[in-house]
UniProtKB/TrEMBL annotation, chains A, B:
Keywords: FAD, Flavoprotein, Oxidoreductase
Domain FAD/NAD(P)-binding: 6-320
Keyword Protease applies: no
Source organism of this protein record: Paenibacillus yanchengensis
Protein name, as recorded: NAD(P)/FAD-dependent oxidoreductase
């Protein structure tokens, strides 16, 4: 052990950034040595990725340089990819180096869950990073350009979104908004464009207020979306998807939003997982550990009714705050705090000027819900980067 | 024959548009019935396509609606694709109809000449229309997006331009200018990008002033272009090109600019052709015809030294003017005019602020040549659309 305890935070997503920011604030000078490790030198707003993916916003508005968020005099930043976590050795192997730790915070984020559907990993794209959404946006525009030279290929103008959860619905809203613009830009008849949303569950946005879900589906259907709810994707092929009763939807663009699972590095590290996620303690600690915290998409926590909390930005941020508190408490030999989730509400956007949401115990839809969504985004920018970040990145709002 | 002679103009390229504009001006009311046929409802500036292809300008700046150019009270416009020309029947078969004519002007433009190189037609793209350059631009951006998710695929960042003629050199200048911007946008190390220019002839820009060619290659080499002059492309494959001594250049993007040949419709119509082009009379008439004019890329004319004029916008425009004159003269039973090419000079751009050219018997390079190029573009906009068009489309200048 070094003279002062060494804290390593893996991942600068919602959980990792909040942990780092709170540590920066709460730790005294030389009380601990904090290192934040991230694959990219920027943090991105996962909840905003549906817009750059559809091309309705610039990807630059969905990320911020980590150097703009953290104080590099207080927290070291290492841009590298984590290759292996070795809890026994208290070490993390990076692509270009090794880090030792006394305390570890795993906030690495999840991976797309394909539920073993053949071809999905190979042929579908997913909305999970700046790089992946830039690919989706470019891929979509490329299909329009290709179609103009091969006008018999209507599959170039057919877009299949797998999954009608939060990401799927929000992405479809943007995609439907973008289509008329792309049609104009490429001289394409808008009637030729097809957007399918395929969801195996019996309803879109499972768990959401049914009245709002109905309203939302109505809004999207009017924008031209064809829903195939209660229909499973059987297979994804280079030429489209096979759904339900062996029906093929020919499409050059399949975007999978059907859920996420924990990061494979967690399993490989020897933690016991359920779909890659680790059931953590109320203090956010890994089982039987007093120094490894797991937060965000890789953590599994249950609500008072015994159902797992879905992996959201909201819970990851709240975990980050408690995680930082508990790290400081550990170092100071003070008692740890128990995490309790405080639901601030949920709003799903449906494209420009439309959204549905529940907040403060009330339902919202239409323009008001859409403002609420923007307020949530602004609040987040303010929390992590103050008014400067709101002014710089808030232009998309 | 109808009561008044019927003139059909096929193609609204440089030759067809100039013919139509001059006919509109010179014909008296009810002296002839003129129909312009074009695949698209817009005319595009072929000499400007290298910019939208590389993404350094918006494709909208390279086209103008035909309705903005011609007076539809004087000239009928039919948006359709020509399927067959039947000189014996004096008919043109369109994708959706048939047109009869007394006088025909064939200004259909050429096709890429692949010289029988295997795989070129299938795997290479070419700079020949608004649709094709939108594809190239989107394809290039897509490669950057793909690279970020498959960083071992350096072929995504390798760009091969086949042909160092006018189009090839001008495109490379723009492409080299665009690369640093794309690298910044996609967080790609600029050192990983490779641009190859492969040309079978012993020099770039054959026939151009050797001193200027050397200057131009120097400018482009400094921008990062690797020249492989005197090197033939043996084959184009899905994974790149095979050049010279069976060397493979792995590349996901091959753009072929190696020349154009006449339109296959011309051969199919029964005209005798050389590389798809018809040796026309000094009056611009097809062999043994007094009513079928062939201008632009499908026409073959020889200079006083007995060498064929290359197919350029400049010659097509001058042919259009004489063609219109001769049509009017025919109708009025006046003598036809002989075409003589008046070389106004040639300027090749090399990207932003750089060009090489010969005009008014003098050589120009650098910024002055670049201004000259802009002046030529402005002059053309003025000729076809007056000051209004200069102000509307001239913003790219």
């Amino acid at each position: 052990m070094s003279s002062i305890p060494k804290i390593v935070i893996l991942g600068a997503g919602y959980g990792g950034v909040l942990t780092a920011l709170r540590l920066q604030k709460e730790l005294n000078y030389n009380e601990a040595d904090v290192t934040l490790v991230n694959k990219h030198d920027y943090h991105y707003f996962t909840t905003h990725l549906h817009m750059p993916a559809a091309g309705t916003d610039n990807p630059e508005n969905a990320r911020v340089n980590i150097s703009k968020l953290i104080d590099e005099f207080k927290i070291d930043f290492v841009k590298s990819t984590v290759v292996q976590i070795r809890p026994q050795d208290k070490k993390v192997i990076l692509e270009d180096g090794t880090l030792s730790y006394d305390y570890l915070v795993i906030g690495l984020g999840g991976e797309p869950e394909t539920f073993g559907i053949p071809g999905l990993a190979e042929h579908a794209m997913s909305i999970r990073s700046i790089n992946s959404v830039r690919l989706i946006r470019e891929h979509i525009e490329y299909q329009f350009a290709r179609y103009k030279l091969e006008p018999h290929r209507t599959d170039y103008l057919t877009f299949v979104v797998g999954g009608a959860g939060f990401t799927g619905i929000e992405f479809i809203g943007e995609l439907a908004d973008r289509m008329p613009l792309l049609c104009k830009q490429y001289d394409v008849d808008p009637n030729l464009v097809k957007i399918y949303n395929v969801e195996a569950a019996p309803s879109a946005l499972p768990g959401f207020d049914p009245e709002l879900v109905e309203y939302g589906m109505d809004v999207l259907a009017k924008k031209g979306v064809t829903f195939r709810i209660g229909t499973a994707i059987k297979e994804c092929t280079p030429s489209g998807v096979v759904v339900g009763d062996n029906e093929e939807i020919k499409s050059a663009t399949v975007i999978w939003t059907g859920g996420i699972r924990g990061n494979r590095l967690i399993e490989e590290a020897g933690f016991e997982t359920m779909r890659g996620r680790v059931k953590i303690s109320d203090h956010l600690l890994a089982p039987d550990s007093d120094h490894v915290y797991i937060i965000g998409d890789n953590s599994l926590m249950f609500n008072p009714e015994g159902r797992p909390y879905p992996p959201t930005a909201q819970i990851a941020m709240q975990q980050g705050v408690v995680c930082a508190h508990n790290l400081v408490a550990s170092i100071r030999n003070q008692p740890l705090k128990e995490f309790t989730f405080s639901n601030k509400g949920t709003v799903a956007s449906l494209g420009k000027g439309e959204a549905i949401g529940v907040a403060f115990g009330k339902k919202y839809k239409g323009r008001v819900a859409s403002w609420l969504k923007k307020a949530i985004d602004i609040r987040y920018l303010f929390i992590i980067g103050g008014i400067q970040l709101v002014l710089r990145k808030g232009k998309f709002l």
